[in-house]
Amino acid sequence: MQFKVIQFAIFFLGCQFLCAQEAKIKNPILTDKFIISAGLYSPLNNVKLSANGTASARESRQIDFDKHFNIADYQNTFSMNFTWRFAKNWNVSADFFRIKRENQVVFEDDIQWKNVTFKQGTGVEGGFGFSLYRVFFGRVIARGNQYELGGGLGAHIITIFPFIEGQAYINDNDFEFKRHEVSSTLPLPNIGIWFIYAPIQKLSLTTKLDWFGIKIDNFSGVLWDISPTINYQAFRNLGISAGYKFLDFGVEVDKNKWQGNIDLQFQGPTVSVFGNF
């Protein structure tokens, strides 16, 4: 009996020692210098805009591209992220994704764009293209054996180009095929924070939040970018992630090629594979 008690005590102390050693070993996502991920983003888009004083007849001044061209649907698109810890408390990261949606429809209302009118009952093709480049410089604010909190400054570089093409009225009498497209590239600076919680070596939770709200030169607006993610470290240098990305911004543009408003929202799940070393 006494021997069994001694065996149990040794076993219990051994387990406590191994668990303590395990707790001291950080999840690689908290320590590795490089993290590269690539995968799919499947957002539901909501796009409303006006260009050069155009309007949606009988409604508001903004053309609802989702409604008029029936493109409000989930779409799979490639996305990627790169993070480099170039110093103990400093890192730089970059993100990218691109979306293009278009459809052929018959307008139920008159649509005015610049100096042309697409009449009710007109068959047209329309849509938009959108790309996002995000660059972020961050510094660790606090860290522990199982977590990391940081913040920093960055920029969302957004390019968007909506278009409509079809038979249009130039004035009350002239009727001809027209394609109207406008495009703009907007560098939107932002502040941001991130938080990583890694209770064990194989599992971690990350959250990123970026915000922008300022007027700069010829445009102004507000931006929110929120990305919670679950990461599973399948192997030492390879893992999989699943998360959700919410991107929302509204911008007023006053430029030669585009004078108008943009209200855009993307939200949907993400799945990716990441390598860390």
Automatic annotation (TrEMBL):
What name goes with this protein? DUF481 domain-containing protein
